[in-house]
Design a protein that fits this description.
Layout (H helix, E strand, L loop, with lengths): L23 H36 L26 H24 L4 H19 L17
Helix pairs in contact: 1-2, 1-3
Protein backbone atom coordinates (compact mmCIF):
# COMPACT_ATOMS: atom_id res chain seq x y z
CA UNK A 1 0.00 0.00 0.00
CA UNK A 2 1.30 3.43 -0.93
CA UNK A 3 1.22 6.07 1.78
CA UNK A 4 -0.46 9.36 1.01
CA UNK A 5 0.68 11.18 4.17
CA UNK A 6 4.04 11.45 5.91
CA UNK A 7 4.96 8.54 8.13
CA UNK A 8 8.06 7.91 10.21
CA UNK A 9 8.49 4.14 9.99
CA UNK A 10 11.64 2.29 9.01
CA UNK A 11 9.85 0.23 6.38
CA UNK A 12 9.96 2.04 3.04
CA UNK A 13 9.99 1.13 -0.63
CA UNK A 14 12.09 3.64 -2.52
CA UNK A 15 11.96 4.13 -6.31
CA UNK A 16 12.02 0.39 -7.17
CA UNK A 17 10.23 -2.68 -5.82
CA UNK A 18 13.60 -4.22 -5.08
CA UNK A 19 14.69 -1.27 -2.89
CA UNK A 20 12.82 -2.07 0.31
CA UNK A 21 14.00 -1.54 3.84
CA UNK A 22 13.10 -4.11 6.46
CA UNK A 23 15.53 -3.27 9.26
CA UNK A 24 17.01 -0.24 10.93
CA UNK A 25 20.35 -0.95 9.25
CA UNK A 26 18.92 -1.02 5.71
CA UNK A 27 16.81 2.07 6.48
CA UNK A 28 19.93 3.91 7.69
CA UNK A 29 21.81 2.94 4.53
CA UNK A 30 18.90 4.19 2.46
CA UNK A 31 18.91 7.54 4.26
CA UNK A 32 22.68 7.88 3.75
CA UNK A 33 22.23 7.05 0.05
CA UNK A 34 19.50 9.71 -0.26
CA UNK A 35 21.69 12.27 1.49
CA UNK A 36 24.70 11.55 -0.74
CA UNK A 37 22.54 11.51 -3.87
CA UNK A 38 21.15 14.96 -3.06
CA UNK A 39 24.65 16.33 -2.33
CA UNK A 40 25.72 14.95 -5.72
CA UNK A 41 22.74 16.71 -7.32
CA UNK A 42 23.98 20.06 -6.01
CA UNK A 43 27.49 19.27 -7.22
CA UNK A 44 26.21 18.50 -10.72
CA UNK A 45 24.11 21.68 -10.73
CA UNK A 46 27.23 23.67 -9.81
CA UNK A 47 29.20 21.99 -12.62
CA UNK A 48 26.42 22.68 -15.12
CA UNK A 49 26.18 26.36 -14.19
CA UNK A 50 29.95 26.81 -14.26
CA UNK A 51 30.12 25.13 -17.67
CA UNK A 52 27.32 27.34 -18.97
CA UNK A 53 29.07 30.45 -17.68
CA UNK A 54 32.38 29.34 -19.16
CA UNK A 55 30.91 28.44 -22.54
CA UNK A 56 28.81 31.61 -22.77
CA UNK A 57 31.80 33.82 -21.97
CA UNK A 58 33.97 32.18 -24.64
CA UNK A 59 31.23 32.02 -27.25
CA UNK A 60 30.09 35.62 -27.06
CA UNK A 61 33.41 37.04 -28.25
CA UNK A 62 34.95 36.72 -31.71
CA UNK A 63 38.63 36.04 -32.25
CA UNK A 64 39.36 39.78 -32.27
CA UNK A 65 37.45 40.30 -28.99
CA UNK A 66 34.47 42.07 -30.54
CA UNK A 67 30.98 40.91 -29.73
CA UNK A 68 29.17 39.33 -32.67
CA UNK A 69 26.31 41.73 -33.42
CA UNK A 70 24.92 39.76 -36.37
CA UNK A 71 24.20 36.24 -35.13
CA UNK A 72 21.59 35.59 -37.85
CA UNK A 73 24.09 36.26 -40.63
CA UNK A 74 26.50 33.64 -39.32
CA UNK A 75 25.99 30.56 -41.50
CA UNK A 76 28.49 28.33 -39.71
CA UNK A 77 26.07 26.04 -37.93
CA UNK A 78 28.71 23.73 -36.47
CA UNK A 79 31.14 26.50 -35.62
CA UNK A 80 32.15 27.30 -32.09
CA UNK A 81 29.04 28.73 -30.48
CA UNK A 82 26.85 27.61 -33.37
CA UNK A 83 23.56 25.84 -33.02
CA UNK A 84 25.14 22.36 -32.87
CA UNK A 85 28.44 23.16 -31.16
CA UNK A 86 30.16 20.79 -28.77
CA UNK A 87 29.64 23.24 -25.90
CA UNK A 88 25.89 23.42 -26.39
CA UNK A 89 25.66 19.65 -26.76
CA UNK A 90 27.67 19.11 -23.56
CA UNK A 91 25.54 21.67 -21.74
CA UNK A 92 22.36 19.91 -22.80
CA UNK A 93 23.74 16.54 -21.68
CA UNK A 94 24.60 18.02 -18.27
CA UNK A 95 21.13 19.55 -18.08
CA UNK A 96 19.54 16.18 -18.89
CA UNK A 97 21.60 14.35 -16.25
CA UNK A 98 20.80 16.98 -13.65
CA UNK A 99 17.10 16.88 -14.53
CA UNK A 100 17.06 13.11 -14.14
CA UNK A 101 18.75 13.39 -10.75
CA UNK A 102 16.22 15.98 -9.66
CA UNK A 103 13.28 13.84 -10.73
CA UNK A 104 14.70 10.81 -8.90
CA UNK A 105 14.96 12.94 -5.75
CA UNK A 106 11.39 14.12 -6.21
CA UNK A 107 10.16 10.56 -6.62
CA UNK A 108 12.06 9.50 -3.51
CA UNK A 109 10.39 12.26 -1.51
CA UNK A 110 7.06 11.05 -2.87
CA UNK A 111 7.55 7.87 -0.84
CA UNK A 112 6.16 10.13 1.96
CA UNK A 113 8.67 8.77 4.46
CA UNK A 114 9.71 11.50 6.89
CA UNK A 115 13.28 10.24 7.21
CA UNK A 116 13.77 10.17 3.44
CA UNK A 117 12.38 13.70 3.19
CA UNK A 118 14.69 15.02 5.92
CA UNK A 119 17.73 13.20 4.46
CA UNK A 120 17.16 14.69 1.01
CA UNK A 121 16.54 18.23 2.30
CA UNK A 122 19.61 18.07 4.55
CA UNK A 123 21.67 16.66 1.66
CA UNK A 124 20.54 19.48 -0.63
CA UNK A 125 21.46 22.03 2.04
CA UNK A 126 24.88 20.43 2.61
CA UNK A 127 25.50 20.29 -1.14
CA UNK A 128 24.52 23.93 -1.52
CA UNK A 129 26.83 24.87 1.33
CA UNK A 130 29.74 22.90 -0.13
CA UNK A 131 29.40 23.69 -3.81
CA UNK A 132 27.16 26.67 -4.47
CA UNK A 133 27.40 29.19 -1.65
CA UNK A 134 31.02 30.24 -2.06
CA UNK A 135 32.49 33.67 -2.59
CA UNK A 136 32.19 33.35 -6.37
CA UNK A 137 28.56 34.42 -6.72
CA UNK A 138 29.23 35.53 -10.31
CA UNK A 139 28.72 31.87 -11.24
CA UNK A 140 24.96 32.34 -11.03
CA UNK A 141 23.43 32.18 -14.48
CA UNK A 142 19.91 33.48 -14.71
CA UNK A 143 17.69 31.41 -16.96
CA UNK A 144 14.54 33.46 -17.21
CA UNK A 145 11.95 31.75 -19.42
CA UNK A 146 9.63 34.71 -18.96
CA UNK A 147 9.49 37.02 -21.97
CA UNK A 148 8.59 40.01 -19.80
CA UNK A 149 12.14 40.79 -18.63
Amino acid sequence: MMHMTFYWGTSVTLLFDSWKTDSLFSYSLTLIACLLFSVFYQYMEDRRLRFKLLSSSTVSNNTDGAVDATPLLNNKIFARGGRWSVGRFTGSVLFGINSALGYFLMLAIMSFNGGVFVAIVVGLAIGYLLFRSGDDEQVVVVDNPCACA
